């Protein structure tokens, strides 16, 4: 039997999920989010962009508000009502101090114990090249979890009234090819299908398949692969970095 994933920690109340684009969380871990909000946990989504460069046939000015609407509907499907946007430019997000500062500010504002992000590595399981936006936001999020707690790194944030928050206990990376932990996806799986399906405009351009069948097939298959390492239960895997 392959090495089993450990259950994700459950002794936390607030999480902040930080990703580059609308749909990143829905492809990655919305079933886990649904399970967590069922349990009364408070989860905020923070998106670096509005995904305005995601649809070839739509001008960015037209695309941004549409994808924002779809993202808010998508979050609502798994019990998340707070969705914020940093308005970095889609496709050309730069890893660097300004991005770290923006994410650290959000961590100070929301004071999460758990921070969630998406695969920050160069590749998806050494098979496909990752996008520069995912790499930049994932790495900056891992860094900002520490930045948020240090009053001397971004003193301007303290001047804005954002006191340091050193309470992030873990950063969980979804879509990692080296996961360590997992969450049972059974309860949240159907809502995660609806959550991904809320990105309908994007998905209709992406595939000729029936959108709902596409979403269900994709998410179910991923949860079943993880089940092999989680006692046979459909699961959402994470690579967990403790702090
Ligand atoms: Zn993305």
Automatic annotation (TrEMBL):
What this protein is called in its record is PIG-L family deacetylase
SUPFAM superfamilies registered for this protein in UniProt:
LmbE-like
Coiled-coil region(s): none
Q: Report the InterPro entries cross-referenced here.
A: GlcNAc_PI_deacetylase-related, LmbE-like_dom_sf
Q: Name one Pfam family in it.
A: PIG-L
Q: Which UniProt keywords apply?
A: Zinc
Lineage of source species? Bacteria, Bacillati, Actinomycetota, Actinomycetes, Kitasatosporales
Note whether Protein transport occurs among the keywords: no
- Say which species the protein is native to: Streptomyces castrisilvae
């Amino acid at each position: 039997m392959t090495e089993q994933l450990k259950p994700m920690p459950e002794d936390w109340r607030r999480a902040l999920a930080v990703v580059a684009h609308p749909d990143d969380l829905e492809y990655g871990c919305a079933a886990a989010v649904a399970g967590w909000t069922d349990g009364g946990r408070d989860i905020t989504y923070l998106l670096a962009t509005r995904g305005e460069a995601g649809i070839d046939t739509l001008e960015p000015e037209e695309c941004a508000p549409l994808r924002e609407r779809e993202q808010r509907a998508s979050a609502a499907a798994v019990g998340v009502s707070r969705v914020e946007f940093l308005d970095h430019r889609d496709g050309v997000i730069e890893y660097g101090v300004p991005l770290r500062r923006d994410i650290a500010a959000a961590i100070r504002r929301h004071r999460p114990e758990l921070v969630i992000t998406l695969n920050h590595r160069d590749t998806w399981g050494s098979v496909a090249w990752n996008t520069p936006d995912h790499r930049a936001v994932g790495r900056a999020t891992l860094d900002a979890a520490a930045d948020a707690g240090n009053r001397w790194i971004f003193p301007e944030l303290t001047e804005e009234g954002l006191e340091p928050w050193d309470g992030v206990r873990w950063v969980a990376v979804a879509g990692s090819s080296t996961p360590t932990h997992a969450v049972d996806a059974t309860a949240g799986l159907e809502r995660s299908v609806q959550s991904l399906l809320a990105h309908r405009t994007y998905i209709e351009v992406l595939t000729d398949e029936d959108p709902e069948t596409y979403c269900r097939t994709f998410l179910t298959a991923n949860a079943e692969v993880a089940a092999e390492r989680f006692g046979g239960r459909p699961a959402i895997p994470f690579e967990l970095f403790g702090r």
